[in-house]
């Protein structure tokens, strides 16, 4: 099963996510084999109580051939799934106005599990915490609709020696009415997800950089990444697009990101 995933949640999560007035921090949970535990802090800044439910499921980022991102759900018993080992307390809570709620996350894998990184998503379902939406029909009858918002947090459990990297292949370029678009397949190496920043530069024949692109992304298996450059102001002619992917993320703590040197490629494109 697949579902669309908001880019802000999948790739560039801020320090705290807002779900129907409930703030959540952190938005990516890292747990290692030494502690086997972590915490998630919820805060309700609103004058109404917020009802919260928490669960875990297995899903990883993927894309279609155009580079449109989605969350690909899979079997909770998949080889890389941490779902069977996860316990979250409490699973349900009512957060009073202005109050905090700490979720305790425990991971208990079998002792024989191989070294590597294992994955899950923590789903936090928030009800209330903001005024309901009121709808009136033509007869004057009103109905209040309380919105339900799901926040999906990546959870990464690391045991033993972990490493990662990325390869770039299959670059293709397309010129549209307003953009120059380059797509390429990113494939993970190693035994852990690649939490990366993908950069690109559009260079003219004189060596001047005419446009740049920079986006965070996460490569758990493989996906198609899209570098997009505005076409406005570009004269007709030949250009070189240089792309690179590096194991750094500004939105995640450096201690949590498995660094690796930039991987680079390039492709020439003609702008008519």
Element layout with pairings:
Layout (H helix, E strand, L loop, with lengths): L1 E3 L2 H4 L6 E3 L2 E4 L3 E4 L4 E7 L6 E8 L1 E5 L5 E5 L12 E4 L2 E4 L4 E8 L8 E13 L4 E4 L5 E4 L2 E12 L4 E12 L3 E12 L3 E10 L5 E11 L2 E9 L6 E10 L16 E9 L1
Structural commentary:
- The chain is 1% helix and 59% strand.
- The chain folds into two domains: 158 residues, Immunoglobulin-like; 108 residues, Intracellular proteinase inhibitor BsuPI (Immunoglobulin-like, Sandwich).
- The protein starts with a strand and ends with a strand.
- The N terminus is likely disordered.
- It is mainly β.
- It has a five-stranded antiparallel beta sheet, with no helix packed on it. Strands 4-15-12-6-10 form a five-stranded mixed beta sheet, with no helix packed on it. The protein has a four-stranded antiparallel beta sheet with strand order 19-18-21-22, with no helix packed on it.
- Strand 18 and strand 19 form a beta hairpin.
Number of domains: 2
Total count of strands? 22
Q: Helix content range of the residues, please?
A: under 10%
- Give the helix tally: 1
Uncertain runs: 1-15
Structural class of the secondary structure composition?
mainly beta
